Amino acid sequence: MWNLRLAAALSLPLFLLSGEARACATCACGDPTLTSMGTEQPFEGRLRFATQMRAWGLSSGQVTVDGMVLRELRMDVSAAYAPRPWLFLSATLPLQARTVRDVSLARETGWGIGDMEVNARFFVFRDREFSANHLFSVLVGTRLPTSSTLNDAQGRPLSLDAQLGTGSWDPLLGLSYTAYLGDWSFIASATGYLPTRGREGFRAGPSVRSTLAAQFQSTPRWALRLALDGLVEGESNHAGVRSEEGSGAIAYVSPDVLFSPAMDVVVQLGVRVPVFNRLGGNVQQMPILQAALAYDL
């Protein structure tokens, strides 16, 4: 009897202090693979925040006729939540600083909020509930016209190239397959965008963005990733006038290093190097420098 009373007395504080158990993201999904935002394994209640910095630029046209040079520094702030094991909801808000210089050396500068993107990713197949090796998902979402029209000092709207977004609703649909095979993981994805007409009657061409990536991770903290990223885009339309500038296809080779300095934190550093360019309008894309940080709360 005394033993029973002693056991009850010792277990009472544990009972009163018990609550919902929390585990790291690796423990909850059963896979130690370091993942960037949008490629993670889902589990119910997963909440992830991320920020991504990108520096990029391009030139277009003929230098002495209609040449234009664009430079941009962009930070994407993202949040993703899984209310169910098969559903991931996410939102990304871009903060941008952009400079455009034309052949006359006139310069336009704008900064602020770009067009927000909201998505729902449905995991329609997984080979097993815990620590899945194969995942297939469908992505549905849209870009929102959250960017405002930027004006110069005289109150006149900046050129479309200097604006931080098209100001249109752009629905999107994507497919993705991911495989986790020991130290290796692979991803193949394609997402199509169908822009509507936005600011000043401009309508961007329909486009498809694709990724083929392989990642090697022999330790819990470090991973190397190599991807081939592609973009195919149709002709744009400005107030009824069709334009081939920027339409066509481009492909990038994208090496990345992923590092986890602490539990549930992933740092990603990489570059996107254009290796194939068939864009109209003599568009020349510069390498894209990228740094990202993801945190599971």
Describe the fold and architecture.
The protein has 297 residues and is mainly beta. It has one domain: Beta Barrel (Porin). It has two helices and 17 strands. β10 and β11 form a beta hairpin. About 5% of the residues have low confidence. Keywords: Signal. This is Transporter.
Structural key phrases:
297 residues, mainly beta, Porin, three-stranded antiparallel beta sheet, 7% helix, 55% strand, elongated, Transporter, signal
Largest β-sheet summary: 12 strands, antiparallel, barrel
CATH architecture: Beta Barrel
Kindly identify the CATH topology: Porin
Total of domains: 1
Radius of gyration: 23 Å
The average pLDDT value, as a whole number, equals: 90
Q: Kindly, what is the distance between the CA atoms of the first and last residues, rounded to a whole number of angstroms?
A: 45 Å
CATH H level: which superfamily?
monomeric porin ompg
How many helices does DSSP assign? 2
Fraction in beta strands: over 45%
The residue fraction in helices comes out at under 10%
Short description:
With 297 residues, the chain is mostly beta strands. The protein has 2 helices and 17 strands.
